[in-house]
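Ticket reopened. Same input as before:
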Amino acid sequence: MLEIKDLVKSYGTGQPVLKGLNFSTEGKKLTAVIGSSGAGKSTMLRCINRLVTADSGQINFEGVDLLKLQGKALQNARRQIGMIFQAYNLVDRLTVMENVLSGRLGYVPFLQGAFRRFPQDDIDHAYQLLKRVGLSQYVNKRCDELSGGERQRVGVARALMQDPRILLADEPTASLDPKTSELIMELIANLTEELHLPVLINLHNVAQAKYYAARIVGLRNGVMVFDGKPDELTDEHLEKIYTSKDELSEQLNPEMETVK
Amino acid sequence: MSGTSSTVSADQHYVWKRPHFIESFWVRIGIMILSAVYLVYAFSTLEIDFQRVARGIPRAMQIFSGAIPPDFAARGSLIVSGFIESIQITFLATFVGVLLSIPFGFMAARNVTILPVYGLGRAIVIVARSLHPVVLGVLFVKAVGFGAVAGVLTLLIYTIGFVGKLIAEAVEEIKYGQIEAIRSTGAGYFTILIYAVFPQIMPRLIGLTMYQLDINLRASAVIGLVGAGGIGSTLNSAFGRYDYGTASAILIVMIGLILVAETVSGKLRRFTR
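Engineering reply: fixed in the latest deploy. New output:
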């Protein structure tokens, strides 16, 4: 369904971040991408929905090469790919409902969107989603009044509002406290399971990746160094994925750090 | 903190001075000397004729004594109609000007446009900004004749120059993540502007509009002096008739009006944080 072939991407004139990455996924499961900062996890996701432009390679999504799309065709592809961001990226000064409905902006005509005249079905769907993520009491609250966890719930609802065929999540829990992080992960995992929605999720937290993912992919320096089931991921693999041992122990025992 | 740590002992001394703004000694001294020389030269070329100043003092006293007490009654209806015209010029020019500033401001913001459009937008804003309202007023009075139309056109251009530039700056400072999020929903270019950019600049835009109303009200009095309508024209003709009583009445109302405008615009701007 999604197939990445020989993907290369460099920023400016520096070393490429992705050096001929190959990856493919079939079916409705949650795939976690792990790796240290700068390994290319974010770049990989952003190449898929074209927030960044890859230098070369192919990304085939349901039979179309996403890297070749332009204009309206690109917008139509993007609306089928939901994305959840680490910094939530909600439009702060708009209401919760406007942010959730903005997930439909790839579908409604310009003027309808501009004047917030969304189809009745979309409004019903938005209410259902907000209820599902537990925010139905905040429909008309402005997003800058919400807590981090609440914002990310809006982010999840917005992405699902797109009726996506695949969900990309770029460290969706990295800005949250451990408890909230767990809740958001659970929400994403449960919702996408209910919707039979394939998910590609970047995670810093290896424990979370092992717990929630059906498949784990490890990136290091822009190439894939591990691909397998969570229980196949051994300490040796982790050592290969993360550069140093310190980083590894931090990954496995995050709470140990504060004790010292 | 254990006793072995010696990071906070004072057995080593350091010399620290705040680095100079201009590092090179000679460049620094050179700029100072040049500035001093120019200042002396500039003052020496000003021909200040103290005798003329002395002769002017009685005339000034005459004007002031004519201006006190201010005469609101004699030309009352002219004063009222002049202010009403000024306020109309101000409102019309501000609102149309701000509406036009929005597209020009977006065009002049580097992060949301392609290079040729950016160049055009920048050029429009720079040209609109480069001419002082008095100069514009003279131009428009020549072009469309005396009166309020010239005033509205003048302040319109003035508003586009000022508000357009500040909108462009506001757009350049927005958070890019929100654009990325809306873009990834498959929204088109203009939808992205409406959803991700506009909400972010909205508080600045409202504040700017209020501020510009205040500025335009002052400016409308000034451009009236060159014939562009409003209370400035009334003031000009009062001076022309040596009617200092009316002139001082106009000045007092003007000060009062501007104080009110400033207070109101300040209060309204505080709402839009």
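Chain A touches chain B at residues 49, 51, 72, 75-83, 85, 87, 89-94, 98, 102-107, 110, 113-114, 155, 158, 162 (CB under 8 Å). The first helix of chain A runs from residue 41 to 48. Please confirm and we'll close it.
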